[in-house]
Design brief:
Elements (H helix, E strand, L loop, with lengths): L10 H12 L12 E6 L4 E5 L12 H11 L5 E7 L10 H11 L4 E4 L2 E4 H4 L6 H9 L1
Parallel strand pairs: 3-4
Antiparallel strand pairs: 1-2, 1-3, 4-5
């Protein structure tokens, strides 16, 4: 998958990988399967799907599975990300997942949103991250 500029990047191919992940979702309670896919700086693609639980609070979002696969396959920095619903429509990650994406992609991560491609700085403005923790330790 080409990692050129946002205009050159194969967003449709990445969305199709998110749709494939969504088809593996386990969503018997909400009936709302979600899939996510991202490209890692080294060119790998990682994906995840939501996995529900009868105790809703321990449900895993698709982004959780994606980040787990990222680290299980060698880590790295996410560069491009997309998340879809059961119809393949691009959706926004929840707040918790935006934090996960910030931690693993940083400010430059490009996110396909319902309003087009946006950098993480717009998806999670004024994000809290590792630099904030370091500043706190210095106090």
């Amino acid at each position: 998958m080409s990692q050129g500029t946002s205009e050159e990047f194969d967003w449709e191919g990445l969305r199709e990988q998110a749709v494939a992940a969504m088809r593996r979702a386990y969503a018997p309670y909400s009936g709302y399967p979600v899939g996510a896919a991202a490209v890692v700086q080294d060119g790998r693609t990682v994906a995840g799907c939501n996995v529900e639980n009868a105790g809703y609070g321990v449900t895993l979002c698709a982004e959780c599975g994606l980040v787990s696969q990222l680290h299980m396959t060698g880590g790295g920095l996410l560069t491009h990300f997309v998340c879809v619903d059961s119809g393949g429509t691009v959706i926004m990650p929840c707040g918790r997942c935006r934090q996960l994406l910030w931690e693993n992609g940083g400010a430059d991560l490009q996110v396909m949103t319902p309003l087009g491609v946006r950098p993480m700085t717009e998806v999670l403005p004024q994000a809290f991250g590792p630099d904030d923790l370091a500043r706190g330790e210095q106090s």
